[in-house]
Amino acid sequence: MNKRNAFSVRWYHSLLFRTPLLFLLLLAVLVLSLTIIMDTVGRPRLEEQSFRMANQVGNTMVAQLGERLAVAETLARALATTGATLPLKTEDHLQIIPRLIDELGPSSYIIGGGVWYDPFAFDPHRERASFFWGRNASGVLEFVADYNDPKGPGYHHEEWYVPGRFLKPGSIFWSKSYVDPHTFVPMVTCTAPIYRHDRFVGVVTVDLKLAGLEAFFDAQAKKMGGYAFAVDRNGKFLSFPDVALTRISNQNRFGRKDIEYILARDLADKRPLFAPLADALDSISNDLLQKAKQSARYDRQVAEVIARDTSEISAAEADLIAAVLQNTTLHSNEGQILLKHFTTPGDLLLQEPCSVAIFHVPNTYWNIVTVTPVSHAMSAATAIYHAVLAALIVCVSAAVIGAFLTLNNMMMRPLARITHQLKNAVDINAEEMLCLDDSFRNEFGTFAYWFNVRTRKLADALEQLRIIRGELEQRVAERTETLAHTNTKLELEVQQRRRAQQFLRRLAMLDPLTDMANRRSFDASLPSFWQRAKQKKKPLAMLLVDMDKFKQFNNAYGYQAGDQCLKKIANTMAECTQGDEVRIARFGGEQFAVILPDSDAEVAQAVAEKIRRQVEALQIPHSGEGISGVVTVSVGVASLLPTKDTHYEHLIAKTNQALYQAKSNGRNQVAVDSHMPG
């Protein structure tokens, strides 16, 4: 046997045969593995993602609808805040309320709003006091006074008004959906309470137009190949693709045509294919009601009062409203918008198996329902599955064939040498430079050469990076120090401004000479003292203390002595009227006013006499223009029991009259108003 034959290799042992065979088997295994992985993992996840995208459309609907609702809620709260502080004057309401609605309420969907006062809360002689504006066909607000007509039914028993009595300050309530009898436009009403001095005095309302919801939902539903609609907390439709199925028209007792939406349950009774959706909506409402009844905060009497006060709310609906008003949790997983997700074998409109998702709209207890054909979601997932699988097979096949051609082109030897060099370079210090063997007279030699050039440049760049990093760290440290210094300076300036503002506010309410409350502070505090006395049904007393012959004193001793005299009198009054509830103020010139809560004329007279004696006991000399003696004061006293027929201005007038009497009787004495009760 010659040596050439001794080194011959059979064809089935040759690399020329085994290498292609190996790569062919590898390709088959990879394709099979990809198919199995895509069937077991990829396809289910793609299908899940398709349904998730449909649910995302529902989340988008909730978010966009929530933006419109938030505008109405913000306007309602703004009106409630204004109603709580606005003077109870008709002209102020007619001027400010419509301006606020126009500024905060877009005319495209805010079509009305106003303030509605409880009986006799606005005016003791008016049972009905409402200030409501609605937009006309041109979008301009017009005042509507029909609700104030004594011959009309009024508004205190309306479905949107009665629950307002149970709302806490700052909270809101959404009415059920209804159709305007004049414009046939579907709408809902947002109600917020008005509280004055922690007492309920009425509500504000904002009317939100629902027209356009069908178009909005249709535009969103096209993305998922199905449709969407909305219902309120009672299950009454707010929108539906086929309006003819969900609206009914009746003729009221006045012969006028009334249009309203029906309940989801009513549609299910007529069209059984809609029953699964109605059952799901009923289940959500029942869960809410049952959870509310199990809560310690739930008060059944609230529902009874609501049902009794208005004929527009049934007992069952009153239960649900009471649950909403008492802030019971809508579902067990707080913060989640998706309430239910299920499939149906058929659908009323699409006539095929569908995936149904129910979302809740926060704060309103409305529900948005999306219906997506299962075939639509599955077709998208199947198309993606086939496209991804085909792309993977093509890519894997190309990679395997490319690897085979590369190996077949005799790359192993130079690659092995380079690998060996790299392997031996494992223990080289990171700062040392690795250079490959570039003696090959082919592309590997070129590769090694440029690799070495790149390595050297990287080494230089690494050194430059070290230098730059050090400089940057230094700059950052300097900048941080500068910012810290600037922040400290700004904080000091803010604190100084706050102290200055507090000092100015204090100066504005104090008399600079006596350091007591000035006339402005007195005028601001007297109404609150009067209101508290009225609530407590206790008398409120007032003293007016006037220094006798003060002008002569100034002429005799000078204005500086007069100022010192006023200070001593003020300090003496403070010592004589110690108490948290007593208020002393410089009323003007040489006069001081004293407010005595819960004091009748007898108590007030005793305090006044004490002040007079203590001032006289100061023994301040006074001998100007024929006067020889000491400084004295005259005191006028009055006390009133606040009623609806009296005003704090009466108290000031009576006290001033008493002071005039004390002056007329010879000064240095106390005079009590003789016409006051008790």
From TrEMBL:
GO biological process: cell adhesion involved in single-species biofilm formation; negative regulation of bacterial-type flagellum-dependent cell motility
Cellular component terms (Gene Ontology): plasma membrane
InterPro entries according to UniProt: Diguanylate_Cyclase, GGDEF_dom, Nucleotide_cyclase, Rev_trsase/Diguanyl_cyclase
Enzyme class per UniProt: transferase
Entry-linked Pfam families: GGDEF, MCP-like_PDC_1
GO molecular function, one term: diguanylate cyclase activity
Residue span, GGDEF domain: 538-675
Catalysed reactions, as listed in the record: 2 GTP = 3',3'-c-di-GMP + 2 diphosphate
EC number per UniProt: 2.7.7.65
Gene3D superfamilies in alphabetical order: 3.30.70.270, PAS domain
Highest taxon listed in the record's lineage: Bacteria
Keywords from the UniProt entry: Membrane, Transmembrane, Transmembrane helix
Membrane-traversing stretches: 383-407
Protein name per UniProt: diguanylate cyclase
